[in-house]
């Protein structure tokens, strides 16, 4: 009886150790994906802010009709070349100057964008999409013109839970190996 009990206990401890190791590996992979996604978002927002700065410097005013038209065209091109990522140019006070794709009236920016317009470094914000409730990552970076921040750029990335993405990638990789 003692040997059987010890074997069952050893088997249970071994299973727990294997599961724990698997969960830790999954968590680490998900964390790496999250860091990569956030780095990508800040990089895109910073690059788009520099592009918007060039347009505003050329046109003179962020909200002029000429700036709006050029910014909308530039955001459309950026979105097309980045796989459909959403971009917006915001004025101080969170007013939308230009956006691509066009935003719904329910798509409101959080107050944290005011800190970017006040000169803080780029910021990130996770939220539920106003359209379908899916998780999104918003990145904001300041638009500088003539030495002052005149607005902010917003980048919107889909941000499904990292664990789900990792599991999907593992499943795709396993399918490729079986083929």
Quick overview of this protein structure:
The protein is an alpha+beta fold and about 180 residues long.
Entry keywords:
179 residues, alpha+beta, five-stranded antiparallel beta sheet, 5 strands
Blueprint of the fold:
Elements: H1 2-59, H2 65-81, E1 86-91, E2 96-100, H3 113-117, E3 123-128, E4 135-145, E5 148-158, H4 162-178
Antiparallel strand pairs: 1-2, 1-5, 3-4, 4-5
Distance between the termini: 47 Å
- Based on Cα principal axes, name the global outline: elongated
Helix content: 40-55%
Strand line-up across the major sheet = 2-1-5-4-3
Commentary on this structure:
With 179 residues, the chain is of the alpha+beta class. It is built from four helices and five strands. It has a five-stranded antiparallel beta sheet with strand order 2-1-5-4-3. Helix 1 (2-59) packs antiparallel against helix 2 and helix 1 (2-59) crosses helix 4 (162-178). The longest helix is centred in the first third of the chain and has 58 residues, at 2-59. The termini are far apart. The relative contact order is 0.15. The mean pLDDT is 84.
């Amino acid at each position: 009886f003692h040997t059987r009990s010890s074997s069952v206990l050893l088997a249970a401890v071994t299973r727990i150790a294997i599961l724990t190791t698997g969960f830790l590996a999954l968590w680490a992979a998900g964390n790496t994906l999250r860091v990569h996604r956030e780095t990508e978002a800040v990089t895109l927002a910073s690059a788009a802010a520099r592009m918007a700065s060039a347009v505003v410097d050329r046109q003179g005013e962020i909200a002029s009709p000429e700036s709006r038209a050029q910014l909308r065209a530039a955001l459309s091109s950026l979105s097309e070349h980045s796989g459909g990522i959403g971009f917006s140019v915001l004025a101080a006070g969170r007013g939308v100057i230009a956006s691509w794709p066009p935003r719904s009236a329910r798509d409101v920016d959080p107050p944290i964008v005011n800190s970017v317009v006040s000169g803080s470094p780029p910021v990130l914000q996770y939220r539920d999409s106003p359209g379908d409730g899916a998780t999104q990552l918003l990145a904001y970076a300041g638009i500088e013109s003539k030495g002052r921040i005149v607005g902010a750029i917003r980048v919107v990335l889909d941000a499904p839970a990292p664990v789900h993405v990792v599991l999907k990638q593992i499943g795709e990789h396993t399918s490729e190996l079986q083929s």
